[in-house]
Amino acid sequence: MVDLSVEIAGLRFRNPVWTASGTFGYGLEFSPYLDLNQLGAIVVKGLSLKPSKGNPPPRTVETPAGMLNSIGLQNVGVDAFLKEKLPQLRKFDTHVIANFYGNSFEEYEETAGKLSQAEGISALEMNISCPNVKEGNLPFGRDPKVIEELVGRVRKAVKLPLIVKLSPNTSDIKSAARSAEQGGADALSAINTLIGMSVDVRTKKPRLAKITGGLSGPAIRPVAVRMVWEAASAVKIPVIGIGGIVSAEDALEFMIVGAKAVQIGTANFLDPAASVKIIEGLRDFCEKEQVERVRDLIGAVRV
Amino acid sequence: MNTIIFNKELSPGYFHMGISAPELAGKAKPGQFVMISVRDGRYDPILRRPMGIMFIEKWGIEILYQLVGRGTYIISRMGPGDPIDVIGPFGNGFQLRHDRDIWIIAGGCGLAPFFELVKQLSHKMEKGKKITMFLGARTYPDLPALGLLERFGIKPGIATEDGSAGFHGLVTELVENSLSESHGKDGPLLLASGPFGMLRALADLAVRRGLECFVSIDRRMACGFGVCLGCVVPVKQVSEDAQESGESGAGISYKCACTDGPVFNAREIVW
């Protein structure tokens, strides 16, 4: 029997396959298609202090081996999540990881504080790609100094393990990774979507109402693998790999360059049972290759 | 995985496909849709395509689709016995009303969801209540599957923009002309599916004439089951629970075409 379990930030996960925020709703939407108890963890849709209605449509556009989205972080808000969604999620024997974001330092602290007091959340994942409304709308995740301060403030506000989700829209992911570690992150996840744009050549209009959006899907995988490799070599804390994973082999690619776990994103749209199929694929691979513990493959890259 | 039973080109660019899917069919209602994988083993194109259910049978479902791009091209090349990955049914579907006159207005392939509706309703209409149909297209060849309507004893009113068949003009004009002859306040229930502009014109007509109107909204979708939040439709905000973000406009909130729709009350939508 292959051991797929991994340990991250003091938590034991039955396997390294998690579902990525924004692609798995609040988890319950997927229960007709797969057994949520089989997942390593569910990372829920990004939560904010107040409900957010999101961006005007069109919000998505298909691109080669991927898609652009500008959903605008639409969500029910942290209070409604805690009251309506979390009690149902608690019934499953799976780690629930609450992804959250804010438009100011204070919003981050307050939202994280509310989440950390709830029963049934294993860890928090912090999205630092959103704009800092007070400081000229520049994304928090762009400036290493801002990352360290933001992570440090949230760290003080919560007791739960804190995962910081890094943005790839930076020239130096190593600095961003080190800043998050300095600030007190227990783990990092990478990457969030890459900013992209698509234009209809006949109407000459951008295909998204908000002009630009986040690119996801297999198209971004090589970029993501490279960034996860860089981040994992720059820090001591665990890194969780995200970016265009649609098969067990894709997941292994991330683990071999140093990811301790992975998140499945866009693949959930293509096949709602994708994450469970990837778990089965990992088991098959390990059996065939005579790998007893999947964690033995973490960081096994030969460079 | 499901299997294709037949895949016929009815007229140039329009296809009628039967898919073996008894379990899915057992749950399906008129006006619902399925998500069909067009991946061809690769990831470009990558997303499933939403397709309205045309007929629900014991053995599966039938769909009507137009060849519009690479995704539909891939499935148009498939044949009987080929595997096809279909999930669903999704969405709310149309309410079935036996007790009212129903006017169905469809543009082009928007006709698809009404076949099953008519199949289920036509024999059960209360005395004196009737189903009337209006179909619009740019030109006559863009009106596929008309022959399939004959079995329900329905002769649709036809409008073409180029005048190649029926009324020369927009189907919404044909509907309005037909209304002015016979209907006052106690008018028919309008059910519509087709291009956005057609639905908007119809919603406007419904408000002017005090008619109830339900429309099926066709949107690009990534998932089909309410998680990507990509297929939203702007609707009038009824409560203040959503944050006023200023830029996207006060009084508007968003509903998913996939789970809250695809059928909406036309008055609910911010056109």
Q: How does this structure look, described?
A:
Chain A has 303 residues and is of the alpha/beta class. Chain A has helices spanning 78-89, 105-116, 144-157, 173-183, 221-234, 248-256, 267-270, 274-288; strands at 6-8, 11-13, 17-19, 41-47, 60-63, 66-69, 95-100, 123-127, 162-165, 187-190, 194-197, 199-200, 205-206, 212-216, 239-242, 259-264. Chain A has a single domain (6-54, 72-193, 216-297), classed as TIM Barrel. In chain A, helix 4 crosses helix 5 and helix 6 packs across helix 8 (274-288). The relative contact order of chain A is 0.17. Chain B contains 5 helices and 16 strands. In chain B, the strands form 3 sheets. A 7-stranded antiparallel sheet of chain B has the order 6-1-2-5-4-3-7. A 7-stranded mixed sheet of chain B has the order 11-10-9-8-12-13-16, with helices on both faces. A two-stranded antiparallel ribbon of chain B has the order 14-15. The A-B interface holds A 22-25, 29-30, 33, 45, 50-62, 64-67, 69, 71-72, 74, 77, 217-218, 246, 266, 268-272 and B 37, 39, 42-48, 85, 87, 219-223, 225-234, 241-243, 245, 248-249, 252-254.
The ordered string of helix (H) and strand (E) elements of chain B is: EEHEEEHEEEHEEEHEHEEEE
Residue share in helices of chain B? 10-25%
Described by the principal axes of the CA atoms, the overall outline of chain A is: globular
Unreliable spans of chain A: none
In the CATH scheme, what's the topology name of chain A?
TIM Barrel
How would you characterize the largest beta sheet of chain B? 7 strands, antiparallel
* CATH superfamily (homologous) name of the largest domain in chain B: Nucleotide-binding domain of ferredoxin-NADP reductase (FNR) module
How many E strands of chain B? 16
Strand order in space, largest sheet of chain A: 3-4-7-8-9-10-15-16
User: What percent strand of chain B?
Assistant: 25-35%
Radius of gyration of chain A over alpha carbons?
18 Å
* pLDDT averaged over residues of chain B: 91
Which sequence of SSEs, written as H and E, runs from N to C of chain A? Answer: EEEEEEHEHEHEHEEEEEHEHEHH
